[in-house]
Specification:
There is one protein chain. The protein has about 375 residues and is α/β, with parallel strands linked by helices. It has ten helices and twelve strands. The chain has a single domain, classed as Alpha-Beta Complex (Spore Coat Polysaccharide Biosynthesis Protein SpsA, Chain A), CATH 3.90.550.50. It is globular. Helix 9 links the parallel strand 11 and strand 12. The strands form two sheets. Strands 1, 2, 3, 4, 5, 6, 8, 9 and 10 form a nine-stranded mixed beta sheet that branches. It has a three-stranded mixed beta sheet with strand order 7-12-11. The termini are far apart. Bound molecules: 2-acetamido-2-deoxy-beta-D-glucopyranose. The site of 2-acetamido-2-deoxy-beta-D-glucopyranose has 6 residues, from strand 5.
């Protein structure tokens, strides 16, 4: 009976928040909400990433009409570097919604931090109720926060509405962190440094931190298994590492970086921002190091610069697939809804809220499915296949 009442309360709240969000989106529909996906790391990576087709001859799953919405803000128009350079020293913004007791009590093993934008309530719900659920996973205590900033282009009235909506969401789920800067693509670096500062003061004893986008599916069981042999007191940052990437000097590119902003020919090695894991020790050291690195508009490269300052190299792991999975319509030979696809992975990128739900239920709902059982994380190079 009790859980039923809880469930009903949850559903009503979700409905209320969802409706309020819908109204707000409707009022704000003139341009405040991004509508395209950024090609993220692809633009930064000199080596082309190749997807190999699985060798199974299985018929492709028809799956359309569920294009993932942007999980993080995307660049719009030419970037004003002059303005960026002038404003660069302003890098501390107030925290409007905090979760001061997130890590109080039992010491969490894993803190999951997900970059999200205010309007993406639907995907936050999916993450909350699937892979990002708080509690014990294989005995390890897991906690979760979402990292948000103020919606771009909102006037004072809309901003006040967002604030009260997000406050309500925070009361309901106790997982919202909101900072008072504009949530734009080039401000993701601010999100990075504010999160690191927050985590080192409010979760100083956490063993590991997973940080990623809201459009990923994380196999938390595999992630914990990967971490089982690691010492949280030692340095660790593992993910999809991009090495020797060159700054893009083509002015028309979204990722154009003039030499005045970055003069060197290659970026330091960095982990793709879609999803990576770090130890508590590295989190603390990074928080201090990043405070001394000049702001750089691409957040994952910026983190690479902080790592370089610490003389740390990110660890490349084949199970962190942080590239976007092509739409099934664009690559019908890829059966991305086959749970076996996820069995050996830790992070998969580019999923809609519905995809996240679907994968969760495929992995956890069916008894007897061969692929529902987690396998040890792959240690060799990643291979498609049966
Ligand atoms: C970042 O946020 C600040 C504060 O809201 C804003 O003034 C600035 O224009 C934003 N920067 C970028 C690059 O979007």
């Amino acid at each position: 009976m009790r859980w039923r009442r809880c469930l009903r309360g949850d559903a009503v709240l979700t409905l209320l928040l969802g409706t309020a969000l819908g109204l707000l989106l409707y009022v704000q529909r003139d341009g405040a909400v991004p509508t395209t996906r950024a090609p993220r790391a692809q633009g930064l990576t000199p080596r082309a990433r190749k997807l190999q087709a699985p060798e199974t001859g299985a018929a492709p799953l028809a799956y359309e009409g569920d294009t993932p919405e942007p999980p993080t803000p995307t660049p719009t128009g030419p970037f004003d570097f002059g303005r960026y350079l002038r404003a660069k020293d302003q890098r501390r913004f107030p925290l409007l919604i905090n979760q001061p007791s997130k890590c109080l009590g039992a010491r969490p093993h894993l803190l999951i931090a997900v970059k999200s934008v205010a309007s993406d309530f639907e995907r936050r719900q999916a993450v909350r109720q699937t892979w990002g659920a708080e509690g014990r996973v294989q005995g390890a205590l897991v906690r979760r926060v979402f990292l948000l900033a103020l919606p771009r282009g909102a006037d004072a009235a809309a901003a006040a509405n967002w604030l009260s909506l997000l406050r309500a969401e925070s009361r309901a789920y106790a997982d919202i962190l909101l900072w008072a800067f504009e949530d734009t693509f080039f401000n993701l670096t601010l999100k990075e440094i504010h999160f690191l500062t927050w985590a080192s003061s409010y979760c100083p004893d956490v063993s590991f931190v997973f940080k990623g986008d809201a459009d990923v599916f994380v196999h938390v069981g595999n992630l914990l298994e990967f971490l089982a042999s690691r010492d949280p007191g030692q340095d660790l940052l593992a993910g999809d590492v991009i090495d020797q990437a060159r700054p893009i000097r083509v002015k028309s590119s979204k990722y154009y970086i003039p030499e005045a902003v970055y003069g060197l020919g290659v970026y330091p090695a960095y982990a793709g921002g879609g999803g990576f894991v770090l130890s508590g020790a590295t989190m603390q050291r990074l928080a201090r190091a990043c405070a001394q690195v000049e702001l750089f508009p691409i957040d994952d490269v910026f983190l690479g610069m902080c790592l370089q300052r610490l003389k740390l190299t990110p660890e490349s792991h084949p199970a962190f697939r942080t590239f976007g999975i092509p739409q099934p319509s664009a690559a019908p030979h890829l059966s991305t809804f086959d749970p076996c696809f996820y069995r050996e992975l830790v992070v998969v990128h580019g999923l809609s809220a519905a995809d996240i739900w679907l994968m969760w239920h495929l992995l956890h709902g069916q008894k007897g499915s061969d692929c529902a059982r987690p396998l040890p994380v792959a240690t060799g190079s990643f291979q498609w296949g049966p």
